[in-house]
Structure formats: structure tokens, C-alpha cells
Amino acid sequence: MKKTVYLTIDDGPTENTKHHVSYLNSRSIPAIMFFLGTNIVQQRDAAIHAVKHGIIIGNHSYSHPRFSELSLDEAIKEIQRQEKLIDQLYEASGCKRM
User: Fold this and answer.
1) Are 55 and 32 in contact (CB under 8 A)?
2) Contact at 8 Å (CB) between 68 and 27?
């Protein structure tokens, strides 16, 4: 039985995301990058690049607040706002979201 381990990277995308994706792909290292919505807005091209090159994008919330200080409704809105951005990334990249 073959098992797969994924490297996880938080708080992207950044100006280094494209380099990280290239490195991971060159070594066949599967990864999940947990992106922040605020970073996606600033580094959209890097985020789309990651999706196009097989990186799974996880939801790390839109603005990374302290969830313990939010109401349930505020927390849900934070996560849903980020979900919409992630869906848009997959659509813009032409890739199907898993």
C-alpha cells in the first residue's frame, strides 16, 4: 500500500511562491499551500501559478484573525470569503478544484 505525505506551507502566496512551487515540482514533493485572502489579492499571479502547477490550495482564512475573538458568524464569513477567492483561483487557472 503506497502512502503519500504532503508538505504544508502556510500564509502564502508570497513573492517566493513561484520559486517554492518550482523547487517542489522539481523534486516531486506534493504540497498543500494554505493561502490567505489578503495575500491572494496582492500575489494573484503567484497563486494562479501554484494552482496551474499542481499545488493544492487550502483555506487559511481571508485575513487570519484570532478566531477565538470572533463570533461564530464572523468566523463563518471569514472562511466563506476565502472560499470564494480560492474558487476564483481554480477557475482562472483552468484547473478543477479537488
Assistant:
1) yes
2) no
Do the bridges between strand 56-59 and strand 7-12 make them parallel or antiparallel, or are there none, so unpaired?
A: unpaired
Instruction: Check: CB of residue 48 under 8 Å from CB of residue 93.
Output: yes
C-alpha cell belonging to residue 96: 478543477
- DSSP secondary structure letters along the chain: ------EEEEEE--TTHHHHHHHHHHTT--EEEEE-HHHHHHSHHHHHHHHHTTPEEEE--SS---GGGS-HHHHHHHHHHHHHHHHHHHHHHT----
Residue 30's contacts (CB-CB under 8 Å, 6 or more residues apart) are 4, 5, 6, 7, 24, 54, 56
Q: Is the Cβ–Cβ distance between 33 and 57 less than 8 Å?
A: yes
Q: Can you give the pLDDT of all 98 residues of the chain as single tens digits? A: 999 999 999 999 999 999 999 999 999 999 999 999 999 999 999 999 999 999 999 999 999 999 999 999 999 999 999 999 999 999 999 999 98
